[in-house]
Fold this protein.
Amino acid sequence: MSAREVPLVYSPPARPLEVPADAVPPAGLIADTLGRPLRDLRISVTDRCNFRCGYCMPKQVFDKHHAFLPHAELLSFEEITRLARVFVGLGVEKLRITGGEPTLRRGLEALIAMLAELRTPDGRELDLTLTTNGSTLVKKAAELRAAGLKRLTVSLDGLDDAVFQRMNDVGFPVADVLDGIAAAQVAGLGPIKVNMVVQRGVNDDQILPMARHFRHSGVVLRFIEYMDVGATNGWRMDQVLPSRDVLDRIAAVFPLVPLSHSAPGETAERWAYADGAGEVGFISSVTQAFCGDCNRARLSTEGRLYTCLFATRGHDLRGLLRGPEAVSDDQLAAAVAQVWGVRTDRYSQLRGSGQAPQGERRVEMHYIGG
């Protein structure tokens, strides 16, 4: 797909939200039509990234002519914090900061500090984490930790420098990401997770080197099946290497034993090295859909609420925040509860059975976060 075939700024259609003046938020936790609670909110703070990974922001589409969202359209830190507080009141216990590359958002540490002050209704701290490509961690890890960040996940798709530079498509060296991970460990961020998106014939020769490198490191390495997020990455099923094959490759060299899920709605299947060298995880959205207990909502950079990674439309919360009439937190909570209460999303399950909806363009990963 060429850049000319994609709008310079892709802002998916949004559903406007209207909340009655007497709207009352639900008493207690909320659930969707399939009984799935809302526990996890992923907050995109920028649609920009300094990498051009082919599975997310292919350079032929997101080239030098691509125009990103203007700053005035992004949610402010105060707006993000207000919405996060509303979501926490509805049952959210985990906040994940995403992008694009979130550390490119100027002053991100201030937002982290604001979110770190939030508490669940019964007074518990939130699980506050961030996903990053690791390119700025050498400079930013200590500041992020001091601001209140608990832990982070680093995307790293190979150890061989030629493979990694080919995948990030901007010539960024793998050594700098590894230095960033080390800096994050020194800063006290942890446990650190490293996510590797595996594409058959592209970087699957990096599976064992990655496993070998992160054994005994305290870092949890997770392998992610290449997914059909968005419309620009040219996804093909024949490039998906099933997690079972990845597991078998590792277990043939380093025996593995299964572990239980760490929390309800956990996306990764967890395995430990039999010799005590740590653990690895497998995220299998394509071959083993986990829609049945998905408890994640996503807030886009410009304030749209998405209830699925494969969604085609969001719900405009920014319109409520900036509308002509002031809205209360109770009204915002009622609006969110209304959206979640009618949620039916299960795209990965439908894809697996050949029933996935076609037609409307799905939201891009760089816009909504992973």
